[in-house]
Design brief:
By secondary structure, the protein is mainly alpha-helical. It is built from 14 helices and no strands. The chain folds into 2 domains: 131 residues, no CATH class; 189 residues, Up-down Bundle (Growth Hormone, Chain: A).
Length: 344
Amino acid sequence: MALIMATKIVAPNVWGPIADHTGRRIDLIRIASLLSVAAFGVLLFRTDPLSMYLALTAYAFFWNASLPQFEAITLNHLRSDVHRYSRIRLWGSVGFIVSVLLMPILLEVEGLGLSVLPAVVFFLLVAIWLNTLVVPEYATQRDTRDAGEFLDVLRQPRTVAFLVACLLAQASHGPYYTFFSIYLAEHGYIKETIGILWALGVAAEVGVFFSVHRWLVRFGAANILLVALALTVLRWVMIATLVDSILFLVLAQTLHAASFGLLHAAAIHLVHSLFPGKTQGRGQALYSSVSFGAGGAIGSLASGIAWAHWEPVWVFLLAAGVALLGLFVALRGFAAVGPREPAA
């Protein structure tokens, strides 16, 4: 699992510059998707530790290379309607819910058990690759931007603040993704209730993806990002201090709509604004590696260390503090260049 997380930091930044230089994003997506299928296919035949290490690392490297480029090509197809990205992204959340509901049924089928899981994932990866074959390339104009101009974008206060805030926001999710189920079980919640609470979070995420495009137009991505960070702080405080109240836990889980849904939708919009033209692939790659890669890795590692030495309430309060720091960084960075949001 650590190897998979590490590829989220490396892979996007290897493939992003190639996509920007060639302008052939969909071809790279197709190649990466096919190589993901080939790498994961090894697990259908080999399950010894060394084979799993190599296969999963290769699979994750190619898979995490293609995701930011698909974000970029989606936004390019949307053109001036980039605020509608969330209406497309919500189907990923729907797919997650369907998987969560169907997999337990398959696992209970006599004679299948866990052996069916690699085959299901392999089938889905093949379906994704086949889907890439019918997605058209977006004909981007040749852009004269070079690596120096990409670095100029990175030096802007708003860009630095945005990336640091996203890293801290994802790091704050470490205790939640790693220990939330254990935390609830220790407070007497049964497995069915824990499962419902997880599903509630994803359902709230779908709801916000369905509506956030209107909010982006009305309030701007920067303001949406700030609100999402503030609600993320509130969510971790509620989970830390009100875990014994099912009512407040339900409310905290609906805030997944903010801590992931709002934040991600606003972040994708801001990346598209901050990294124009041929810098788009590198911008999406950088956002993915900094937030989900480095932020996720730091959050998981730090929460594991803290969980071993502190009471759970303090671990989630630490997460709230990290998210609050992200909010402070975003406020200072955005204020440094004024309230105007960069044009999409």
